[in-house]
Model the fold of this input.
Amino acid sequence: MICPLCDKSTKIGLTNILRYGEERSVFYCRDCGLGFLENMESEEMLKQFYADEYRKKYKPRLDKETNAEDLFECSYRFQEDRLKIISPWLDKGKKLLEIGCSAGMFLFNVKDKVKEVVGIELDKKAAAYAEKKCGCKVYTDELIATPLEKKSFDIICAFQVIEHVRYPVNYLMKIREYLKDNGVLYIEAPNLNDVLVSIYDLANHKNFYYHSAHLYYFSKKSLNILFEKAGFEGHLYFMQDYSVLNHFHWILNDMPQSSCMEGLCTPEFPFQNRITDDIKSRMNTLLRRFNEEYKQLLADLEITSNISFVGTKK
Done:
């Protein structure tokens, strides 16, 4: 297979079984550190999939159908890490665009920290919900098909989007045109070196992690090459969103929790009703401290669940 990022040939396979038992291979390029799916769909097919089918297959609660309100409720409380990373660039004079804004979870949290927010979301139901919830305009087409002016945004964000894009270098180069000359790009992607994939021995998680909606699996090395090719310079940040209890669940059961909220919430012990507040507080304080230390260790080792890039035009 030819690597779509560096054009080198590779025969290294990461898996040939995806989530839901789909038989399809993911290859790995040792030269640039990129994982990539074989037989990728066309851009038009992908656009249709994300507009109509994506949330029927991939949803925050595994046991039930989802809707825009569910998406919002599952995630809007868990935007602190993203806000912490971008906060140095936020002020009331800035205009911010989020591409792939879903039901508006991040926009809802950032809208009062900038002058104006705008969203792009292919799923029309999620876009309508975000528009109403955040009081902003949300477009339901590709960026280049909107009436948005080039060089009009101070900040452009795209969280968990770039791994879904057929041609990521070209995609970033198009985004670049809509940033002001001193504007900031903020991209977040899953980490190929996630500890659950690269360190722990979890056969079922491996099949869960790799799936057909993710065309690419980025490492630190491949992300640096990607942004260099697209004309950006900046810094990478390693972020762990799921808690240590979520990881213990995987280690003990090798299966996901029933809802993403369980793994994203601040961890707590399941106390009996008779237990005093003092005992609850002291034990939960210990657990939360361990959770934060665990997340920091993963960040130091660069094996968190996500990698973020914040940078500017070269």
Notes: The longest helix spans residues 277-301. The two ends are 31 Å apart (CA to CA). The CA atoms of residues 57 and 65 lie 9 Å apart. The chain has 13 helices and eleven strands.
